[in-house]
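JOB MANIFEST
job_type = single_chain_structure
chain_count = 1
residues = 179
[input]
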Amino acid sequence: MLPNAKPLLPAAALAVAILCPAAFAQPAARSHIITSQKLDWPTAAVLASEAVRICAAQGYSVTATVVDTSGHEQAVIKGDTVPLQSLSVAYRKAYTAYSYGLAFNKNTTSELIAAGVTGPANGALNTIPEVLFVPGGVTLRRTSDHAILGGLGVSGAPGGDKDEACALQAVEKLRNTFQ
């Protein structure tokens, strides 16, 4: 080593500390990023399609809507001859199955109705346009831990019980993909 030369290691360490403070930082406390679980769009589309197909096989033209964990439409499949209102009704059934299924731990809009769930006693949420306590909505849950993934709503068959039967059959057929 030359007589006036200084070791480079401390200088290199100082440069790393200045340029990459994360290399010396304490572990981060809590992340400020929130992630939510939901079905991917291909699965949501297949689920809605399957519900429409099951109802069509029984002679019913329906609309099926999947909502994700934000309550927004993720997939909508409309049968060939459904009435206009089936689009909004399928969405509202899916939204109700998701949001109230989450709040009251129920799996279908029929279960919510049977349990007497109509929202808070003061009626504050009963006026939300998306809420509809009619059979035909199914809460979507992950198979491993039953975490809520969204909702499926079906509308257009002659009776909500028939809508819900199609939705339940579609969910049952695809349940193993809700990992």
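[summary]
Residues 8-24 have pLDDT under 50 and may be disordered.
The radius of gyration is 25 Å.
exit_status = 0
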